[in-house]
Amino acid sequence: MVSKMIPGFNGLAVPGPTNMPFAIRQAMEVALEDHRAPDFPEFTLPLLADVKRIFRITTGQVFVFPASGTGGWESAVANTLSPGDQVLAAVFGQFSHLWVDLCRRFGLDVDAIELPWGEGTPLELYEQRLRADKTHQIKAVLVCHNETATGVTSEVGGVRKALDAAGHPALLMVDGVSSIGCIEFNMEAWGVDVAVCGSQKGFMMPTGLAIVAVSQKALQARATARLPRCFFDFNDMILANKDGYFPYTPATTLLRGLRASVDLLESEGLEQVFARHHRLATGVRHAVEAWGLRLCAKHPKWHSDTVSAVLVPDGLNANEVIKTAYHRYNLSLGSGLSKVAGKVFRIGHLGYLNELMVLASLGGAEMAMIDCGIPIEAGSGVGAAVKHFSRTAKQFAPVKAA
Amino acid sequence: MVSKMIPGFNGLAVPGPTNMPFAIRQAMEVALEDHRAPDFPEFTLPLLADVKRIFRITTGQVFVFPASGTGGWESAVANTLSPGDQVLAAVFGQFSHLWVDLCRRFGLDVDAIELPWGEGTPLELYEQRLRADKTHQIKAVLVCHNETATGVTSEVGGVRKALDAAGHPALLMVDGVSSIGCIEFNMEAWGVDVAVCGSQKGFMMPTGLAIVAVSQKALQARATARLPRCFFDFNDMILANKDGYFPYTPATTLLRGLRASVDLLESEGLEQVFARHHRLATGVRHAVEAWGLRLCAKHPKWHSDTVSAVLVPDGLNANEVIKTAYHRYNLSLGSGLSKVAGKVFRIGHLGYLNELMVLASLGGAEMAMIDCGIPIEAGSGVGAAVKHFSRTAKQFAPVKAA
Amino acid sequence: MVSKMIPGFNGLAVPGPTNMPFAIRQAMEVALEDHRAPDFPEFTLPLLADVKRIFRITTGQVFVFPASGTGGWESAVANTLSPGDQVLAAVFGQFSHLWVDLCRRFGLDVDAIELPWGEGTPLELYEQRLRADKTHQIKAVLVCHNETATGVTSEVGGVRKALDAAGHPALLMVDGVSSIGCIEFNMEAWGVDVAVCGSQKGFMMPTGLAIVAVSQKALQARATARLPRCFFDFNDMILANKDGYFPYTPATTLLRGLRASVDLLESEGLEQVFARHHRLATGVRHAVEAWGLRLCAKHPKWHSDTVSAVLVPDGLNANEVIKTAYHRYNLSLGSGLSKVAGKVFRIGHLGYLNELMVLASLGGAEMAMIDCGIPIEAGSGVGAAVKHFSRTAKQFAPVKAA
Amino acid sequence: MVSKMIPGFNGLAVPGPTNMPFAIRQAMEVALEDHRAPDFPEFTLPLLADVKRIFRITTGQVFVFPASGTGGWESAVANTLSPGDQVLAAVFGQFSHLWVDLCRRFGLDVDAIELPWGEGTPLELYEQRLRADKTHQIKAVLVCHNETATGVTSEVGGVRKALDAAGHPALLMVDGVSSIGCIEFNMEAWGVDVAVCGSQKGFMMPTGLAIVAVSQKALQARATARLPRCFFDFNDMILANKDGYFPYTPATTLLRGLRASVDLLESEGLEQVFARHHRLATGVRHAVEAWGLRLCAKHPKWHSDTVSAVLVPDGLNANEVIKTAYHRYNLSLGSGLSKVAGKVFRIGHLGYLNELMVLASLGGAEMAMIDCGIPIEAGSGVGAAVKHFSRTAKQFAPVKAA
Q1: What are the residues facing A142 on neighbouring strands?
Q2: Any idea what the Cα angle at residue C219 is, between residues C214 and C222, rounded to 5°?
Q3: What is the ipTM metric for this complex?
Q4: Is the dihedral of CA D239, D243, D244, D248 positive or negative?
Q5: Chain B environment of C399 (Cβ under 8 Å)
Q6: pTM above the 0.95 mark?
């Protein structure tokens, strides 16, 4: 919430919504408009085509629903699966848990591998399960690319390899809500069939759009999918989008923002966007190390470049840090969800972000931790990040650097 | 679409999205915010309570989904019904048709009474059907309060009377997308069980919120309702809303706008809002009469105070009028949908609107009709509206009038 | 003022401030910025160069002060004249009067020809005075290009001819506040030495910039000009602008808007902008004629394409019309100033404007006049304009017209 | 400039323009409006009255010009003095220099005491000069309350004491551009006659308003003041403001922002605003000390709570730090002006600011200094500020702190 109580800007360091660029704000500064106007397609057709590049696909289709990531999850399964279908998944955090929960509500038969929170997608177990499924009862494999609750990034390409190794035809569905537009996501190369994203993370926009990319193979699955669907029906979208329109009133203001978002991402360059996220995240991890604290992610291979879940020392309540940061310093840190509630605070480092914004979050976290009695040295974390950013600045500096 | 081609503001005279007040624009001019902030409930709890007054309910609950009206329809049935349930409905326009279509996709058994477009909900037929259903197989009765495609307003209270007369316990579900916040809607008095609205009509906001009010009786129906649901699940909303939070990331920017919208509606006063819509709509109808044209609505009792569908003379294509108005005069009129395509153009007169804005739309329609060879007298329609507005101005004039 | 009392947009039909395009609003939707940033000149240097094209000069310089048109007048005389210098001017409205008043306060010796309000610059009298001034005591000739108070446009080119005919070297200074960017203004061809404009008229921006174009000849006059100056000093501007900076903090937000304004004007094309203003103004004049009323401008050659001052019948108070329009219909008409107070109401028709916006103003004026007992026929004025706009639409219609 | 090159928000750490609160942005998100509207005074009269409280006066008058602080300086002298009048001033930085320069251009006889940059107003020398002026030839005494170029705050109350001690009737004129609304300014208690401010510092707004408070005594000086004036004439303002209007088109958009600005300052409370500035400034000074660097201000009594000018070690060019900060880290630091160019970089810490924003600026300065080879320890300055802020947080924490 935009605190009315403390002057100065809120330090928004949750893992989404992220900070919104002025270019996106400007783009949404329009009058409301007629979504059936004769020239509306001149705006929408290129937009829908261009969004595909953010997912790195040249085939298939991107759907933009006026919804959130959860709606994107729902669209993924409702358009491709039927009641009773088997689904392979793993649960190692709140969001991987919630997608599984959604599947079960829709009557799917989910084989959900439960893992300690802080681990990532178990590639070997996946491969075992897929090899064992000789009759191809598994219709879909779910992967939470970036578990926002624990700061764990899984290897999507590894799941593709497991599928291929097992010669298994299941659809590969990926929750990329907090990864797409931030860290490498190569939908076509990885053979992903459905990738789900929301507008309020890497796209740096307000919440309100579910952005879902779908492969040709997944599109064909509609023919046999018997789960009910209407609001999230790909069919209706395909028919209307073809001419640049939508089956029901689209959120045109947000579509204007999406145009600016795609342009921003492409003007920076996706590779540069990914490199920037990695460099900023590395600075955060140096800070955590300098504080003498540990991350929830149990192994460096799972370190997320978009969010770090920091474990507070035993006996201390992370929520106190979060509340202190918020009420005293106008800093919004992410709280621990479900199993890790009270154990971690999360620093979001994704979206429209630079070194200064990261240093502000780290400095704010330091003040809050000191206030709560966590024995860290003032300036240690920020200093570690300052060192890292300075040391790596030259190769990342813009053309004009002095 | 906001035309880039013609200077000056677009005349937005479609029946939604409507014109957006600056107060709403201002309210949405915020930074993105943390929807899990400790003080977020201080904003959301009063908001969710206050929205109930717009529906005129004191019990039950209002749900705000990041979606559109179509999503609201889906939430209505998915949370209360089970596959195979019987539903009574009538089809007399594109939107009454689409809700029925949605029900059928969700496996409901819809008795949809087909009527000529331009008529409204058939109260007597409804009562007959309900009386005949001795075993109460009909679980829900659908009413399209204001058929946006034809400019027809039905009598919701009459359906309640029919239900009561038949002693029938079916849920009464109303599509109030283009009526709520514009014309009288008295949910509690009329015993409506689910009322569906969107943000882009009477709420004068961007598209992106489905606003759904639900009675206690309909909430209890969740217990037995077996249609699958997750994104639109009332349960999850109830649990999270109780504490002022949401089950997934809410569209906070739009919620800020909703706060302003409710405040605007209440500061004008709902009765005044309704009276204003009636007076402006009457001016439009005087104009249509002065032009020598007819409305699609077949009887004055069905005249809609939010949208007028104007029939063009036989042999002429209404789409030519719409295209001319748009490309030549920057005026967005609503087109005829489906069965009435080419036969009508629609003038939306709802939301944030006053006499001047109506006169601009009428004047623009006159120019476009003249250009297309429709034999109307220049100034006749505008003049009729000017007369009506002047004649009725005193009792509607604000306190400060000279 | 943005009325809080009447729903719907205010009809802004005063002769400035004008309606603001969204493109300008978007451009000003930026964070505050450092006006000494290393790359600030990359923004300002092209901007200052491009503004010259709006004045139609290729030499000389444009200065942009954080001020209003009055400040522009002051800069014109303070940088070029000395106490006691003779100035030739004519007074035929409130704004031509005020510039003369300013000159006198600065100790200039103004020969101000007083004329009936409704007339324009007296070309023959000017030429007589200039021919009579054999010793060239007259240092500057002032012209109010468009007298906003009376809706009178004078012939600036005619004054140039008078100067040339007399072989007189006086500086030609023009108040183009309500003309530049709206009606033909050809500074170089007309040999204008100082042209003064503000941001809130043809530039379609908020008030806050005085935009002043100065010829080489006028720039050289600085050397001998002894009037004191600092805030409005051209010298300081020249020195700082050369490198893209300003002598004191510039209004950067408005400069961002100015960039968008120049781009908008040039993307429409100045000739098209002028033609649009002429066509819309002609529609207004047809309406006035249809109402049976007269303009303040005493001869068609003086008809202004940016503002029409409409005389109300004797015995009626134009202010009643204005107040009724404002309080009852949310329409802002311009009031009569000074000598014509109560006798005229003014309809501004300049800036970001199209047919629909003009029709709304005319319709609003009709309602207010009828309410005040002025015997006009409802729809007559609007109808006359509708006819004119329809008849002339084709050649003005955009490429895409049906 | 809003850099297009580096993602993330610009760190605006110049001493004005300052960061703009969303509440001010929202307030300016209006349509352009008629400044002669019948109800415009309902907005302006309370506003003009309320601004007086920010200056802490109950008598006299506040004038709001569409201009900048330089225009405010000009208004102060032009309305109260005559050519040849004696003025006492001191020069110890770029802005104290510029006001003296302006006075000289207006023909005033300025006794400008030249002091080393880094010192403040010389109270004893002032008293000597005033005592020596037995015939009261000195008509005005100028004080630069906060010299923005060097980060030096002078004691205005001390100048009042000097005047009183000398029994001298000269007007006391204060440049409060970078102090008012940030640090204690008690116009009435200090007997200040003219206080000049701009909108882009403590008022947290875009540049574009000169806000000038004038005592009764200074208002009376108009009667004898013979300097020419029109745009900045107090008389015209007094006459028009009396009824809530302005002598020429006011910058209404900025006036809307000013309303929000005054409300923000008063809702935080001026005393709290001053305490916040002091606490944040103290954190910055701790950082500078931890870096092993010195401030330009030569004595703690002159330390400014709104801007710190940091001296870089001999042989290094401060501009390199500034350019590196800007181009590499999107941080805008203030450059050294005139005599201290290349010797200092300035950190602005005024306006809408909190701990996090200060830490970001300090962290950015650290990175830039390290990159430029200034031997400071990474994290040392930020750490010192973190310690200070944490140590002093409780008494400054808002009511709701955990």
Answers
A1: A173
A2: 130
A3: 0.97
A4: negative
A5: 5
A6: yes
